[in-house]
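F.,

This is the one I mentioned.
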């Protein structure tokens, strides 16, 4: 690595995209992953779909309890 870098010809914000969407990885515990994989396989759906449905259902339950 150099001690100094020359950014005089650099362009600020060249790769910035205000509409960019960042998808953060989510790591499930092994038992939870197996559970979700089983449901996804049975219903022929993506893991993401199953996880999102489970989260939405839990949000609805939590809102009803409040």
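My design for it:
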């Amino acid at each position: 690595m150099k001690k100094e870098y020359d950014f005089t010809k650099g362009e600020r914000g060249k790769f910035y995209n205000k509409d960019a969407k960042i998808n953060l990885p989510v790591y499930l515990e092994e038992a939870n992953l197996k559970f979700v994989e089983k449901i996804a396989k049975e219903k022929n759906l993506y893991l993401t779909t199953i996880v999102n449905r489970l989260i939405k259902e839990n949000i609805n339950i939590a809102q009803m309890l409040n």
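Residues 30-65 form one domain.

Talk soon.
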